[in-house]
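Schema walk-through. Below, the input block comes first and the output block second. Nothing else is stored per chain. Lengths vary across the set, and this one has 227 residues.
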Amino acid sequence: MPTMHTIRSRHSVRQYENRPVEGETLRAIEEMVESAQKSSGLDIQLIQNNPEAFNVFASFGLIKGARTLIAFVADGRTQDRSIGYWGQRLVLELQDLGLNTCWAAIFSKRKCRAKVAEGKSIRVVIALGYGTTNGHDRPTKDANQVSRVEADYAPEWFSQVVEAAQLAPTGMNRQDFTVVLKPDGRSIEVECSGTGLSSIDAGIVMANIEVAANEEAADWSFSRPCA
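--- output ---
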């Protein structure tokens, strides 16, 4: 079960050792993906030996050496928040397996081996494997820039919730979200702009928040579900 330690130790990694994920580790990932599929209803595909998916021309966000990825196939953007939530749950579980990961919106859809039905597309992928490093800390916005309290006061556990949100990976590290503690002092909403990949980012933030709040045994809930 992921914890705040998982969240704090996990960083985006873009450089990977050129070796496959196999054996017991691979079987554990297959079980994790199957469980996420059943619980979410999303089309989540684990794809091995597909390094060419990251052979793209770009000035930023390049991933090198990754042979394995998880692809999310969807019809439009209606499932974005759910994709972010379930994807980040997998990212944290992969971290606890000793693997490194990176969310990727820049990849070759043509070279990706995901099975895509007519009318659908690959919305986003997660690269995974053995990083050449474990990544590093990145700048984050201040807590008051990514959160708002509408209640009379914020309970102690809310500070850990905000920290978990600050540490969530987002597109271009924009952190274009606001974690709102509603007037009842227990309900949490994650606001986002609703443009681009921000709804996926919101789902990622929600997964981190869930870990943080549950670890604190908080009396809380989301005011809006991830799906």
